[in-house]
Amino acid sequence: MMSPSLSRRATLRELSRWAALLAAQRVAAAPDASLPRQERPHFATDPFTLGVASGQPRPDSVILWTRLAPQPMAPRGGMPRALVALQWQVAEDEGFSRIRRSGTVWADPAQAHSVRVHADGLTPGRIWFYRFIAGDALSPTGRTRTAPAEDAPVDRLRLVLASCQHYEQGWFIAQREIAGLDIDFVLFTGDYIYDNPCARRLRVRSHETGQHPSGQAFSLPQFRSRHAHYKLDPDLQAAHRAHPWILAWDDHEVRNDYAGLRGDDDFDLPPAEFVRVRAHAYQAYFEHLPLALDQQPGPGGMRMHDRFTWGRLAELWTLDGRQYRDVQACNDQGRYNGHLRWNCAEVNAPHRSMLGPTQRQWLQQGLAGSRRRWKLIGQSTQMSPWGLPAPDGRRLVFTDGWDGYAQERAGLLGFIGARRIDDVVMLGGDVHRHVAAQLRARPGDRRAPVVASEFVATSLTSAGMPQSTMSLIRRANPDILHARSDVRGYMQLEVTARSLNCIARATDFPVLPHSRMRTLASFHVEAGRPGPQVG
Length: 535
Fold this sequence. Notes:
Elements: H1 4-21, E1 37-38, E2 52-55, E3 62-67, E4 83-91, E5 99-107, E6 114-119, E7 127-134, E8 137-138, E9 142-145, E10 156-162, H2 173-179, E11 185-188, H3 207-210, H4 220-231, H5 234-242, E12 244-247, H6 271-287, E13 306-310, E14 314-318, E15 340-342, H7 357-369, E16 374-378, E17 388-389, E18 395-398, H8 406-418, E19 424-428, E20 434-440, E21 450-456, H9 467-476, E22 480-484, E23 487-496, E24 499-508, E25 518-526, E26 533-534
Parallel strand pairs: 1-4, 2-12, 10-11, 11-12, 14-16, 16-19, 19-21
Antiparallel strand pairs: 2-3, 3-6, 4-5, 4-7, 7-8, 7-9, 10-23, 13-14, 15-18, 17-18, 20-21, 20-22, 23-24, 24-25, 25-26
Helix pairs in contact: 1-6, 2-5, 4-6
InterPro entries: Metallo-depent_PP-like, PhoD-like_MPP, PhoD-like_sf, PhoD_N, Phospholipid_Metab_Enz
Pfam families: PhoD, PhoD_N
Organism: Sphaerotilus natans subsp. natans DSM 6575
C-alpha cells in the first residue's frame, strides 16, 4: 500500500500538472483586438441592472466597478460579443458640477462586460461621487471615499464587519441598514455568494426570487449567473453604492470547505475537474467585485491578501485562508462530513498551515513593522478555540477552522506576544455567530497572557447552530466572552486612539422582509489592554 506521504505527493504532482494546463484557459487582461468595438452603444433597456460598486480605499485612489448586463440572467448578460465603450466620472459633488477625474474604459465580453477603474490622483480623506455612462445610458451614482494620508492624524475610523449572505436563506435587511450608516468602509470577510443550494426547509425567499439558478455551480456561466442573481438584490446594491468595500473570501465563493487545490465538499469530483471549477469561480468573483486589475486570476490562482492604512490610527491586513492552506486534519474517512472531528495528532502537527508560509511571513513582518496604533486583521473565520470536550479526554473540534491549524495559530499569537505588538484585533466571519473573545498563545490557559482581541460577526442571512449548543461551547472555552448563534446581522466598529468600540447588530433567523435589526451587545477594547470588555 502506498504511504500517506507518497500518496499526498502524487496528488500534489497531479494537481500541479492540471494547474499548469489551465494556463491556456486564462482570460487575457488585454482586450481582443479582433473584436468589433461599439463606441456609442444604444440600449433598449437599462444596462446597469447590477448597480455600481467601489472598493480598496487608498489615500489617493479607489477602485470603481460596474458590469453591463441589460439581461443579467441571459447568456452574456444580453450583451453582444463586442467591446463596448464606457465613460467614468469621479466628482466632488453629487451633481457632478465639479468633476475631478474621468476617462474611458472598454467593457470586454471576456470579462462578462465588467469593468474596474483605478481612479487615482484623488485628494486623501474625503467623500467622492462616481458614475458610468454607456451611450445614452447613465448608471446610478455611487458614493465612496479615499483613505486619509498615511501620515495624517486621524480621530476615528468607522467600519462594518460582515460575511455569509446566503441569498436563499433570508432577505438582505442588514445590507439595507448598512447602506444608511455613516461609516468609512465595509469589511466583508467571505461567503459573498453560496456555490450550493440550501435544504428546502431552510429556504426562505420564494421560489421565483429566492432559489439559486442552476443549483450547484460548476461552469463559468453558472458562477456568473450566481453573482448576477445576488447583485440584483436592491439592498445589496444599495450597500455597495453607499460605501467602498474591502473584501476577503472564504469557501462558498468556490466550494464548501475547499482547501487549496482540493474540493473536500465534492469528494467524488476528480482533482483536475475541481481545479477547473475553482478557476471558473475565481474568474466570476473577479468580474463582479471592485478588485484591482493586478488581482486578475490566472493559472497560479488569485491574490486576495492585502494591506490598507487609515492615517496614523490604524492598519488593516486582509488574509486569504483558503488558497494556500493544507487539507483539513483528521480526514481519514475520505469523504466530507462537516469537519467536526475527534481530535487527532495531525491537528497539532507543526507544519500544518492555513495561510501558507509566504503569506504568514508577510503578515508577521507587517505587524512587527507597523507604527500605527491599531493593527486590524480581517480573515475569514474564528481564531479562538471552540471545541467540545468528551468524558474520555478527547475533544471534538472543527478542523476546517483555526482549531485544525493549532500550531500555526499558537505561533502567530506567540509572535505577537513575544514582540510585544500592542492593539492587535482579529476580525472574522464564517461561523454564523456573534463572538467576542480574548486570544492567547496557549488558548484556555489562564496563566498565559492575553495578547490580542477578537470579534466575529454572525452571518447576514445564513443559518447558525442552536443557541443551546453554542452555550455548551461557550462554557467549555473560557476565552470566548460572548457568543450568540441564533441571530443574523453584522458588527459596527468605531476606532479611536483610546479605544475600539464594537456594536453587535442582530435580528432573528430567518431574516424576513419585515425583520427589524436591534443592538444585541456592545464591547470595547482599551488601547494598550488586549481583550474585549463588555459595554
